[in-house]
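Please, why this fold?
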Amino acid sequence: MDKTRRDIIFERFGLIATKLGNQIHLRTLRDAFATFMPFMMLAGFVTLINYVILEPTGFMGKIVDPDTLTTIQQIGESIANGTLSITTLLIVAAVSYHMCVSRDYSNHIAAVLVSISTFVVLTPMATMYTPENASKAIEVTGIIPVSHTGASGMFVGIFVGLLATELFIKLSNNEKLQIKLSGNIPPAVLKSFNVLIPIIITVTSFAIISFAINQLFNMDVNALITTIITGPLSKITTGLPGFLLITSVANLFFGFGIHQAVISGPLLDPFLIQNMQENMAAYANKEEIPHIINMAFKDTFAVMGGSGNTIALLIAIFIFSRRKDYKDFAKLSVAPAIFNISEPIIFGLPIVFNISLIIPFVLAPIFSLTIAYFATAAGWINHVVVQIPWTTPPVISGFLATGGDWRAALLQVLIIAASVFIYLPFLRVDEKVTASMSNE
């Protein structure tokens, strides 16, 4: 393929990637989950501290009285209640806020409050409970079940955040629905009256929809969305083939200058976060861990040194490269790579628009995720049960994310070593291409 045709293909692909990355709803979800992630990391730290370090049956139980450790764990449990148990409420607020930003709508607080109110309208305030020593469950009313405010209600939160905010903004921008007040009116009062009718219409509309669904299908909105949308999508996106496909496409887009989070974030993050939270809850309750693939699993095994597991490329350059300029780029990139920041090597070497290196950039994570998946399934390493910051250095990340399993750290070392040889032949090709272009 001649250079001109190649450049045209790269340019067109880049335009498509840019357009997709700027799609308003995908951008809103990406930004919302970025805002939400610190709460997930806090919950991850609490899980690690409570159920690894402060575990009464663990090593600390031999140093400190187990009853004292159980009492101290209450601090972490309260933090979990304020993070994991209200995941959906946090998501509703974050999605609504970023939708306002995307739509350039200034009354953020009104939109966020409308979305939270709408979410509660759609949530059944009852649950089934089996009392101690009883054989029959009874219905308890007047409460909002944690199953709806936690991770399992996340998709209702996403839909409410998007749809309720969209409707509210559209109604609010209609001047015919604004109540005009005259006189010396405080700005806060004026704003509240301007959105009074849009609030009434939005919340009431969703209440009617919820009532209709309940009457027609004898189920609430959460159950309906889970049945027809969340369940099937979750099996596709967090099953190994679908997960690898989306991750690979996202890395391919990164090879054309569009950050992989733009693609994988909206498609994967809701499912990965839900799986992560269910794993953390199961780990805290000493139950069987339900999921292999989750948010920290991706970060631990597919972002070693940054997207594309580029720490392996840096090692390949340091050991095998014959080009001084490549080694100079690698020296500049190594410090960020320790904390999984790959942009210096991606844009500096570059990997972007460089087909020789885009190929292993996509292949290396496929290899690492597949190996880690089957190692977990076989019981060779523990499941990933702790949400760690994505900037946690490789090897340390494997140890922490699996609740202190040294085998996961060793597996990371082996995967990095193998990935060096995935990158190596493509690095050789790239060096020859660069040398030939320099001689022209």
